[in-house]
TrEMBL record:
S-adenosyl-L-methionine binds at G67, F72, I121, E122, R135. It is found in: Cytoplasm. It comes from Limimaricola pyoseonensis. SUPFAM superfamilies: S-adenosyl-L-methionine-dependent methyltransferases (SSF53335). This is Ribosomal RNA small subunit methyltransferase G. Belongs to the methyltransferase superfamily. RNA methyltransferase RsmG family. One of its GO terms (molecular function) is rRNA (guanine-N7-)-methyltransferase activity. The gene is rsmG. GO terms for cellular component: cytosol.
Length: 202
């Protein structure tokens, strides 16, 4: 995939994403940001997948990404927000110090409106987010438990999920009440992007 072939993004965003892919490829041999076999598919499997969450960008406020790893979706969505929602700020929570150092470098080099918390999510004071996202971090019931303390009233949680999404929703309903819209994924016909609102203990 070339620098300009992501759907629905400006030239500036495409260039930022291209520079981000270069950074991931440069750092990956030393800190394993993505599986080595996935590097060839970085643009399709990780970046384009994460970029779908830009559909949920509010115009301003606070977006919190939990367990960001190499920056999916946090860095990718923050790159898309740079010219679409410049007043939206991001916080990426990642407990692995080396990954957090990479994320700080990416934020600086791409000039993103984002900050890193290099801490465990459970140890972070409530962040008052309008949107909480997390990818490949935990099953849905655990994600709701991790995300809910950081959500402002009326906020939403956005979780990309694989083919087990329906099972995870059913399991989560044993503990939680919530509204859920399961959006189709453009990058994987079996995946879903779950939009969770009005979550509370069941
Ligand atoms: C499987 S990786 C997924 C990374 C990224 N979201 C992605 O989709 O590629 C999970 C990441 O969450 C981080 N993590 C796991 N538990 C965490 C916690 N309790 N607090 C903060 N970070 C955590 C790990 O260090 C790891 O980088």
């Amino acid at each position: 995939m070339s620098a300009t072939s992501y759907p629905d993004v400006s030239r500036e965003t495409a260039e930022r994403l291209h520079r981000y892919a270069e950074l991931v490829r440069k750092w990956n041999p030393s800190i394993n940001l993505v599986a080595k076999r996935d590097l060839e598919l970085l643009e399709t499997r990780h970046i384009a997948d994460s970029l779908q969450l830009a559909a949920f960008l509010p115009s301003r406020g606070h977006w919190v990404d939990l367990g960001s790893g190499g920056g999916f979706p946090g860095i990718v969505v923050a790159a898309a927000a740079r010219d679409r929602s410049p007043e939206l700020r991001f916080t990426l929570v990642e407990s692995d110090a080396r990954k957090a150092a990479f994320l700080a470098t990416a934020i600086r080099e791409l000039d993103l409106n984002a900050a890193i918390l290099a801490r465990r999510i459970e140890a972070v004071d409530p962040l008052g987010a309008d949107i909480v996202s997390a990818r490949a971090l935990a099953p849905l019931d655990r994600l709701i438990a991790l995300g809910l303390p950081h959500l402002a009233p009326g906020g939403r949680m956005i979780f990309p999920k694989g083919r087990r999404a329906e099972d995870e929703i059913r399991d989560a309903r044993a503990q939680w009440k919530f509204d859920c819209v399961a959006h189709k994924s453009d990058t994987d016909p079996e995946a879903r992007i779950l939009e969770i609102s009005r979550a509370e203990h069941g």
